[in-house]
Design a protein that fits this description.
The protein is an alpha+beta fold. It has 19 helices and 20 strands. It has a five-stranded mixed sheet, sandwiched between helices. The longest helix is centred in the first third of the chain and has 21 residues.
């Protein structure tokens, strides 16, 4: 089945007799209890249809005739099941990854990379995190309140917070952490830009209270909190070589067990405001994806967030493994079209009409099915559905070669279409996307070759906005509030970005977001951006780039919020699974 929800549908099928026997045995029901729930063998369809009515009647008759000891035994079993249903304390979850903690030292503890979340996020915590929408949930912050015009936010910390070494985590330490994030020479961080933009200054009111005075009014500040991990500033010099990590999260770093590029262990921090269920999380770094997959299949690791998509069907057939396609919030693939500048860029994609044509030559449904085997979703617009700027009226399939051809003609090109353009890639699925689109684009009159570059050259041109005509890349942070995108995403920044795009209207739209005094003003600014995007579209979305999570069925408590983050303290191990 090609539907991307295939894995969900498989999991939702009725339990087979074998699997139900396993479940009832764990619950103490046994094979004899199957008659009461009306389940026969896999091919007992006729018997199963007749069974529900009998199953409803039998227990009532049995309860009337049941002797007292049997009733007591049934009650004891029910009580034991109820006690065992909730999260269990203890155990170690072993995580398999292709990354190593040392790779992220230059950005630790302030950087944000979804693929690396299991490596370091269990050791860190923020003031708030989003739910599955842009609804902030308390973490280190217990509560918060805006002033009347939303130009200031007062945050109240939970009482008696501590860093991992017992040092008090006070309002002053939170202020120091934010200031260190944007200090000269600070570790690299995407969130530093939004801290500088959204926050004027921070005032400490008392030990557990601080006020954020805002340069941009309203709830944009929670985008900062989503990624701004609270760090012990005095500990930053010790992060060289990870001599010591004095974190703020539910798990603490075990330095004695650390093996560079191979392994690290994080143990439960007992004084965390919401202590974890697990005793520890262990991270194993594998040299290649196939080795990691073999370890998961052999039970040597329990969890990964980066199972290779081609292995989906193999692991979906394994009854001991659960699969979860990450939400469409991690990243998307886009094709960027570079405007003309003195330093390079394209004479052709400088024309917004040709950019509109490019949007319409991309068969997104075919890309999802043929390249990603349904383990992705088409992406027609930039915004995630939970984003305030998302407009369902604009979210439709734009693929239309006839309309694209008309736009190419309108852009000033004759029957032969454009000269041969160059759209750059450094390989991987980005190259496959460009190769698949290439033939349809030629039908509409957009002629291009796939320009395969060495990665360092590709990045240099990307950062300089000097790719010859265009490129294919990942694109992130679209799930946050709309004005955060041009601050934190390099393809959208102004005045310098990967597409060398800027305009007076774009600048005015960003200013409208900043000047907004209420939700009506913000909605108007969102519509202003969407209208600009309809006409200019210097980056066109293609499809989501979803993580594929896989874990042993003993692992419970998985969740994913609006930005793809997990609550590591919620994981637990069910040894009966």
């Amino acid at each position: 089945m090609s539907n991307r929800n295939n894995w969900r549908q498989i999991r939702q099928r009725a339990l087979s007799r074998r699997r139900l026997l396993q479940a009832t045995a764990r619950a103490g029901v046994g094979a004899a209890g199957l008659a009461l729930v009306g389940c026969g063998d896999d091919d007992d369809d006729g018997q199963q249809q007749a069974a529900p009515a009998a199953a409803q009647a039998q227990p009532q008759q049995g309860q009337q005739q049941q002797p007292a000891p049997a009733q007591q035994q049934q009650a004891a079993v029910a009580q034991a099941q109820q006690q065992q249903a909730g999260p269990k304390q203890g155990g170690v979850m072993r995580v398999g990854t292709g990354r190593a903690l040392a790779e992220h030292q230059a950005a630790f503890p302030f950087g944000a990379w979804g693929e690396a979340f299991p490596l370091y996020h269990p050791m860190l915590e923020g003031l708030t995190r989003y739910s599955d929408s842009l609804d902030p949930q308390p973490r280190l912050a217990e509560s918060w309140e805006f002033n009347n015009d939303q130009s200031a936010l007062q945050v109240k910390l939970r009482p008696d917070l501590e860093f991992h070494d017992g040092k008090p985590l006070t309002a002053n330490e939170v202020k120091r952490s934010f200031e260190a994030n944007i200090a000269e020479g600070a570790p690299a961080s995407q969130v530093a830009g939004v801290i500088r933009q959204y926050i004027d200054n921070i005032e400490v009111v008392d030990k557990t209270t601080l006020t954020f005075n805002l340069a941009w009014r309203g709830t944009y500040i929670f985008d900062v909190f989503e990624y701004a991990n609270i760090a012990d500033v005095d500990n930053l010099p010790e992060l060289d070589g990870y001599q010591r990590i004095n974190g703020s999260g539910p798990f603490k770093f075990d330095r004695d067990s650390y093996r560079v590029d191979e392994y690290h262990r994080m143990e439960r921090f007992e004084n965390f405001h919401e202590p974890a269920h697990l005793d520890a999380i262990e991270c194993f770094t594998f040299p290649d994806e196939s080795a990691m997959a073999l370890a998961l299949e052999a039970g040597e690791v329990d969890f990964t967030n980066v199972l290779p998509h081609p292995l989906h069907d193999q692991f979906d057939a394994n009854p001991d493994i659960e699969l979860q396609l990450g939400g469409p919030v991690d990243s998307i693939f886009v094709i960027g079209m570079v405007s003309k500048t003195d330093d390079g860029g394209s004479d052709h994609f400088d024309n917004p009409i040709l950019r509109q044509a490019m949007q319409r030559v991309i068969d997104r449904e075919r890309i999802v099915e043929e390249l990603f085997a349904g383990l992705a979703t088409t992406r027609n617009v930039l915004w995630a559905p939970h984003n305030p700027a998302y407009d369902p009226a604009r979210d439709y399939e734009y693929f239309d070669l006839e309309e694209a051809r008309e736009l190419v003609t309108k852009a000033g090109y004759g029957p032969e279409g454009t000269p041969t353009l160059k759209i750059a890639t450094f390989g991987g699925p980005q190259q496959e996307i460009l190769e698949l689109v290439q033939q349809d684009a030629a039908v509409a009159g957009i002629n291009y070759e796939v320009d395969r570059l060495e990665f360092n050259i590709w990045v240099e041109r990307f950062l300089g906005g000097t790719h010859t005509d265009g490129y294919c890349s990942h694109f992130g942070f679209f799930q946050l509030h709309p004005p955060t995108l041009p601050i934190i995403n390099y393809q959208m920044r102004t005045p310098v970005n990967a597409c060398a795009y800027d305009s007076e209207e774009y600048q005015a739209t960003i200013q409208a977001w900043k000047d907004a005094e209420n939700d009506a003003d913000r909605a108007a600014a969102n519509e202003r951006f969407n209208t600009l995007w309809d006409n200019e579209q210097w980056v066109t979305p293609v499809a989501t780039a979803n993580f594929l999570f896989a874990w042993n069925k003993r692992i419970q408590g998985f969740s994913e919020n609006a930005t793809g983050q997990q609550r590591w303290q919620d994981f637990w191990i069910d040894d009966s699974a």
